[in-house]
UniProtKB/TrEMBL annotation:
Keywords: Coiled coil, Membrane, Transmembrane, Transmembrane helix. Residues 550-683 form the GGDEF domain. This is Diguanylate cyclase. It comes from Vreelandella malpeensis. InterPro entries: DGC-Regulatory_Protein, GGDEF_dom, Nucleotide_cyclase, PAS, PAS-assoc_C, PAS-like_dom_sf, PAS_fold_3, Rev_trsase/Diguanyl_cyclase.
Length: 693
């Protein structure tokens, strides 16, 4: 199969439909609309999102501006109301002070309690402003009161803060709230000092005002600021004089720093703004001063209550926008459909070009961008046709080159799938061009399959060459293949579009290399390891012993009475005896053991993972088996025996030479004992100097 035909078959697409073309097209458009994959649906989504963001921005700005305007207007209104209330309370306090001053002038400097009591009774009209009026002497003892309350005359006030202020300042003073000792009610005292002609303090006249009743704060109880607005009065020290919640009267404001507007007012300034009071919700606040009494009047309006009309207005605007958006969406959809109709025509014409029904696209539109797209597409289509013509010529040339090449070659696409194999490669692997890739991949040797797959994927991913030798099972015959594939890179884009590979059959070369490696380490007469192969395996076993303390034993021996066989029967008879001895030794040892003929009649056995006790049993079996081997020449039977030395690796051994020396010394000792003996040499029993005795 040619490369072009193989590639055409791979890229072939088969499509079937059970729906009519218009209905199928409408279903595709509807699916794209739902998934927002069409330009029209995405534009509609973008416009809708823009309208949503615009509406949210406008409503947000309206909300922020409305909040600022509400705060400014409400705080201004509260400030006006607070000033009015402060002026009214100031007038109330001033009237009471003036009444007490007139009473003080009437009494003069008299100190007779009965006469003072008589004067108080004559001013019964004061009770419309005070709960009671009291008079003290210079010591602070109350000498008269009106109306008379049992227990009030005779009370000592010199320890009260208002007495100290009146005596110290000699001026009008409104006291801090206190609990009356007689009435047990929260009270304030408006005090006037009594002075003689020299200005000496003679006592005071005080009007007692009850905080939870009376006319002083009655106006505050009638104030209505919406449903939840209210007023309050504080002393300059932070004591509550009036609050709609009577439980807060005569309590102190704690953590003044948490109430910056109130704190500013308590310091004598006009505090206005937004804040909290007693842990309530945010409130618009305004404060004004009652200077004669050193009090502060505060008005409060909940922010949420004030913003309710604004919130209702924003909600109405939101619903108006939703209704408007629902009305605009169909209009936008129709407008977008009309605007994008040339784009749909362009899509249809491009499809016809792809099907070969037309050669170019032609649009009758005033949209400059779409006309540029059409011109660009026509130019690219012309270039594509030229490239296709050139490609067909190159594919024909490539087919002829690949088909005539005696070397096995293949082509793979960017997905890693082999799309073409030339006849030489098909013949090498004994497969046909129709064989599926999955089928012949199974013929790669199981031990090589995973490594080949990993390296193949790595080469496709990185663009590096694929170089690998692997085994291929071909009709019960194992072939060794050398594969070298190189990525085909695009010169402009710089990425890989596939691989082109060369396959060589190196089975004969691998066999020759294996034979050479075998001959390099084996004795040609017996097939056993030679000295080189034996030493290499000794080094490997000694390295394992040093790393993992894996025990290994070593047997060295030569044949007793072997020289007469060579002398009397010739070398051919000696060689026969050596082969028979080698067969017996190989039969008696384990499959994991290594047997070597080191030269002449000298043999060695390496027993990996073997203790010295096990080695002794194997050595004895070898001695008995070899003693039974014989050859016959001219009616005479010849036998041999073993003089064997055994040892094991030791932690103090610096190299295998030390173990070889011990085993060799043990074999000589076996000969000295009369031959046909096995002598074991432990490292502690061996003296290297004994070799020179």
């Amino acid at each position: 199969m040619s490369h072009a035909r193989y590639r055409s078959r791979e890229n072939e697409q088969v499509s079937t439909t059970v729906l009519s073309a218009p209905l199928y097209k409408r279903l595709i458009q509807y699916k794209r609309l739902i998934q927002f994959r069409s330009l029209k649906s995405r534009l509609l989504l973008g416009l809708s999102a823009t309208l949503l963001v615009l509406a949210a921005t406008v409503l947000g700005l309206t909300w922020q501006a409305g909040q600022s305007m509400l705060q400014e207007s409400n705080v201004t209104h509260l400030r006006y109301e607070a000033n009015m209330l402060a002026d009214e309370i100031t007038q109330q306090v001033q009237n009471r002070i003036e009444a007490l001053e007139r009473l003080s002038q009437t009494m003069g400097t008299a100190s007779d309690a009965e006469w003072v009591q008589y004067e108080l009774a004559k001013n019964d009209a004061l009770l419309s402003w005070f709960e009671g009026v009291v008079v003290s002497n210079e010591e602070g003892t109350l000498i008269a009161d009106w109306p008379s309350v049992i227990g009030r005359v005779g009370l000592e006030t010199r320890d009260q803060e208002y007495f100290g202020m009146l005596r110290g300042t000699r001026s009008v003073y409104v006291s801090e709230p206190f609990i009356g000792r007689a009435s047990q009610m929260p009270l304030v005292l408006i005090g006037i000092p009594r002075l003689d002609a020299q200005g000496d303090f003679l006592g005071f006249i005080g009007g007692v005002v009850r905080l939870n009743s009376g006319g002083l704060f009655s106006r505050l109880a009638t104030i209505r600021l919406g449903n939840y607005g209210y007023s309050a009065v504080f002393t300059a020290s932070g004591k509550v004089l009036y609050h709609p919640d009577s439980q807060r009267v005569n309590t102190s404001i704690e953590n003044r720093e948490r109430h910056p507007n109130l704190d500013l007012a308590l310091d004598g300034w006009l505090g206005n703004g937004v804040g909290r009071l007693f842990g309530e919700q945010p409130l618009y606040q305004s404060y004004s001063q009652v200077w004669p009494a050193n009090w502060i009047v505060g008005l409060y309006l909940p922010v949420e209550q004030a913003q309710t009309p604004l919130a209702d207005f924003i909600h109405r605007l939101w619903w108006i926008w939703i209704v408007l958006a629902l009305f605009l969406l169909p209009v936008l959809w129709g407008l977008l459909a009309r605007i994008l109709s040339p784009l749909n025509l362009l899509e249809a014409q491009i499809g016809e070009v792809g099907q070969g029904r037309r050669s170019h696209v032609r649009l009758d539109t005033s949209m400059q961008e779409l006309q540029q797209v059409a011109d660009t597409f026509n130019r690219v289509e012309d270039e594509r046709q030229q490239l296709l013509d050139n490609l067909q010529e190159r594919e024909a040339f490539l087919d002829s080159v690949l088909n005539s090449s005696p070397q096995g070659m293949f082509v793979a696409n960017f997905g890693g799938r082999i799309t073409y194999m030339n006849p030489a490669l098909l013949n090498m692997l004994s497969i046909s061009a129709e064989t599926q890739m999955e089928t012949w991949l199974e013929k790669i040797h199981p031990d090589d399959r995973m490594g080949v797959a990993d390296l193949w994927a790595h080469s496709l991913k990185t663009g590096k060459d694929f170089v690998r030798q692997m085994r291929f099972i071909n009709n019960d015959e194992t072939l060794w293949l050398d594969v070298h594939a190189r990525s085909v890179m695009l010169s402009q884009q710089g990425h890989s579009i596939g691989l082109v590979g060369v396959v060589k059959d190196i089975t004969e070369r691998r066999q020759q290399e294996a034979l050479q490696r075998w001959e390099a380490e084996h004795d040609p007469l017996t097939g056993l390891l030679n000295r080189r192969g034996f030493l290499r395996r000794l080094e490997e076993a000694f390295a394992d012993f040093q790393k993992t303390s894996t025990p290994s034993a070593l047997l060295l021996f030569d044949l007793d009475h072997f020289k007469p066989i060579n002398d009397e029967g010739g070398h051919a008879l000696g060689d026969e005896m050596l082969r028979r001895v080698a067969q017996v030794i190989a039969w008696e040892v384990r499959r994991s053991d290594h047997v070597a003929r080191q030269g002449g009649d000298e043999f060695g056995v390496l027993l990996p993972s073997c203790t010295l006790v096990q080695a002794q049993r194997i050595a004895e079996a070898l001695r008995v088996a070899v003693s039974e081997v014989s050859v016959t020449h001219e009616g005479k039977v010849y036998n041999v025996t073993l003089s064997m030395g055994a040892t094991r690796f030791n932690e103090n051994d610096g190299s295998v030479e030390e173990a070889l020396t011990r085993a060799d010394a043990a074999s000589y000792e076996a000969k000295d004992r009369g031959r046909n003996e096995v002598v074991v040499k432990l490292p502690s029993e061996f003296d290297p100097l004994s070799l020179f005795d």
